[in-house]
Amino acid sequence: MSNMLSVFGWLIVPTLALCALLAVMVILVRQRRPLGRRPSWSLTIGFWLLCSWALCVLVLTLLSGTGCFDPEALMCPSASFTLFEGWLDQEGWNPVAIRETGLNVALFVPGGFLLRCVSKAASWKLVLGLVFGGLGIELLQALPLVGRVFSLTDIVAYALGAVVGVGLGALLLSGIRAVARRPATGGRAPSQPA
User: Fold this and answer.
1) DSSP reduced 3-state for 169
2) How many CB atoms lie under 10 A from the CB of residue 158?
3) Where are the transmembrane segments (predicted)?
4) What is the pLDDT of residues 33-49, one digit of tens each?
């Protein structure tokens, strides 16, 4: 954890400041809409959380690299088209590569969850949108100035995280709808007379 803070520590305050600025912007846009057309506060907060998640993902994936920022940046490898490359090395399983893939899965679970909660689109469209977003991140990482590596394994991990997140969001929403459809019984069993 201390290693994570040393790498990402300088990003925490600016990212939180941008999220706060984003919250102010979302609230101002909500307030400018006519009363009958304003989204609910829960939808507004969900949209803000979704935008903040996207901002944090961009910061973590594009700005936190230890990439090659020297004149030899063009010589750095910038693409890996082998699935699960690095999981096995000469000594067996590589726990660092497996952990990184797991973190990439976990990175997209909140996005899928929030997107399912704030959007009425079909689940497959939400997953596809998140996968294309992850593909865009990976394409940006392939640029020499970013100094990161385009990885097919990361795209698969993003897709898995999106599927899990959208599934959890759908599960939560179906549970909420099931509770809302129950008749009010006043604490009695539904078959007891009043």
Assistant:
1) helix
2) 27
3) 6-29, 41-63, 126-143, 155-173
4) 888 888 888 889 999 99
